[in-house]
From TrEMBL:
Residues 30-523 form the Major facilitator superfamily (MFS) profile domain. PROSITE patterns: MFS (PS50850). SUPFAM superfamilies: MFS general substrate transporter (SSF103473). This is MFS transporter. Pfam families: MFS_1. It is a multi-pass membrane protein. It comes from Streptacidiphilus cavernicola. It is found in: Cell membrane. InterPro entries: EmrB-like, MFS, MFS_dom, MFS_trans_sf. Keywords: Antibiotic resistance, Cell membrane, Membrane, Transmembrane, Transmembrane helix, Transport. PANTHER family: EXPORT PROTEIN, MAJOR FACILITATOR SUPERFAMILY MULTIDRUG TRANSPORTER MFSC. The chain crosses the membrane at residues 28-51, 63-84, 96-115, 154-176, 182-204, 216-236, 248-265, 286-309, 321-342, 349-368, 380-405, 497-517.
């Protein structure tokens, strides 16, 4: 049956006369165009983190304000992704992709010209909204352009492109901030956006499915958007408020109630935003859960690695980025290879093997200390990249490939939403694990080192510094005392990081069990395009 679908798909593509096809709609050129746009968004995700300290200094921003430079972007993405996917399904993925690319570049330029932290936050939110338009549309274009037997490879190369830009972010960001200005990390998106627009107008064909639907589920959009806002905002604020705080429980409880209302409405709506029939596919459901668990462990763990490299090992941002290259290099190389392997043997074995390798790497990284050799550190990073590659590619193909082509945009939005929720949840939960561990071991280590007692108010600031691997040493502190404080701070941080990595490894093992439920896309009906 699958072979007949593939043949029918290829026949449909081949039936388009050469004069009409030309370069427009060419699958591999479509992939190139999509990759350029997605790389702009992926690069922005890591490059901005490097610029945050400079933004804070130049605009005299508070810590809370600078956090919203990131949080505003994440919230906009999370709230709008699935709706953006539906927009692509309804109006065409080409148009949606190009609007997203141009809007993202324009918002980036506006940030560079902003003279206040408030304007930076506003335009970062706009960046998130346009990024949400671009990303599901990119997957929708790949789904509609490539025949089923080549979709895995396309997604693998797409993943490799994201790896390249993610790897380049810290290095490029460090160089731009150090030698030009913080504004330049946003201005760099403008030429990339213009290149994406030019390629898109020339190459992309608007692959709009025959059964794309003619109306929007407005109540569903409102219910899901508010539910996602409450969920992500509650997760973001939980470390500061406390997981048992009434405000945290109110936000998370409200998200659950609205999610239940959304689910009920989807059974009643004649044009549901997210048809629940999608989840009749065990593999698609497993792929969604797998993406959440994978990003939970990956982003949560990676969050601490950056503090370990810079604050404990004393590396510059650029040097830290260079030390992460073994991991990102494996993502770059491993993603296309994973696509090829998954295309031959299916996703189950590569995904399970990948999560087991990831769990092993995380268990290994739980033993990091101040004297860990670069060789051993690189080994764990290589294993992490090697393990994640087949999971990212496989889970993406499972979600998008198991959805009907007329819902490719919604499926792409679901995949991206799972990534955002998993990453945000992992950072928050593992951050809470870290904080609890530091709070548990710090007083004992401080007393054992015979350091001066600190007041409750000073201890709160001490604990916050230690949670990011910093030793708070006052000016004029004797050298011997400063060394003791540094040792205690680093030991306490490493104890918390070890526990966080152990939890992440256990989550990775759980994800490997979920991977047993996966199989290749089975609902593909081939591209049905309007030219």
């Amino acid at each position: 049956m699958t072979e007949r679908v593939v043949e029918a798909t290829e026949d449909r593509l081949d039936a388009i006369p050469d004069g009409r096809r030309g370069l427009r709609g060419h699958p591999w050129l479509t992939l190139l165009t999509v990759a350029v746009g997605v790389m702009m968004v992926a690069l922005d995700g890591t490059i901005v983190a490097i610029a945050n300290p400079a933004i804070q200094t130049h605009l005299h921003a508070s810590l809370a304000s600078i956090q919203w430079v990131t949080n505003g972007y994440l919230l906009a993405l999370a709230v709008f992704l699935i709706t953006a996917g539906k927009i692509g399904d309804r109006f065409g993925h080409r148009t949606t992709f190009l609007v997203g690319a141009v809007g993202f570049a324009a918002a980036s330029a506006a940030i560079g010209f902003s003279g206040s932290i408030e304007l930076v936050i506003v335009f970062r939110v706009l960046q998130g909204l346009f990024g949400a338009l671009l990303q599901p549309a990119a997957l929708g274009l790949l789904r509609a352009t490539f025949p089923p037997n080549k979709l895995n490879m396309a997604i693998g190369i797409w993943g490799g492109a994201i790896g390249v830009s993610t790897a380049a972010g810290p290095i490029v960001g460090g160089l731009l901030v150090q030698h030009i200005s913080w504004q330049s990390v946003f201005f760099v998106n403008v030429p990339v956006g213009l290149l994406t627009l030019g390629l898109g107008l020339w190459i992309l064909r608007d692959a709009r499915p025959q059964k794309s639907g003619q109306s929007f589920d407005i109540p569903g959009i409102v219910l899901l958007s508010v539910a996602m806002f409450l969920l992500v905002f509650g997760i973001i604020k939980a470390p500061a408020w406390g997981w048992g705080d009434a405000r945290t429980l109110a936000f998370l409880g409200g998200a659950v109630l609205l999610a239940a209302a959304f689910t009920y409405w989807q059974t009643r709506s004649s044009h549901p935003l997210l048809p629940l029939s999608l989840f009749r596919s065990v593999s698609l459901s497993a792929g969604t859960v797998l993406m959440i668990l994978m990003m939970f462990g990956f982003f949560g763990a990676l969050f601490f690695v950056t503090f370990y490299l810079q604050n404990v090992r004393g590396m510059s941002p650029v040097a830290a980025g260079v030390h992460l290259l073994p991991m990102t290099a494996m993502l770059i190389v491993g993603s296309p290879v994973a696509g090829l392997v998954i295309g031959r043997i299916g996703p189950r074995i590569p995904i399970v093997a990948g999560m087991l390798i990831t769990a092993t790497a995380m268990f290994g990284m739980s033993a990091l200390h101040t004297g860990t050799s670069t060789v051993l550190l690189s080994l764990w990073f290589v294993m992490l990249g090697l393990g994640l590659s087949p999971v990212i590619v496989g889970a993406t193909e499972i979600i998008v490939g198991n959805a009907p082509v007329e819902l490719a945009g919604v499926a792409g939005g679901l995949q991206q939403s799972a990534m955002q929720v998993g990453g945000t949840l992992g950072t928050a939960v593992l951050g809470a694990v870290m904080a609890a561990r530091v709070d548990s071991v710090l007083p004992g280590k401080w007393a054992a080192a015979k350091l001066p007692a600190v007041s409750a108010q000073d201890y709160a600031g001490l604990k916050q510094a230690v949670q990011v691997g910093t030793a708070p040493i006052a000016k004029g502190t004797p050298t011997q005392t400063a060394q003791a404080i540094t040792q205690v701070a680093h030991d306490s941080f490493l104890s918390g990081m070890s526990l966080a990595f152990t939890v992440a490894a256990v989550v990775a093992l759980l994800a490997s069990a979920v991977g047993l439920l996966t199989k290749r896309g089975a609902t593909d009906s081939g591209p049905a395009v309007h030219i």
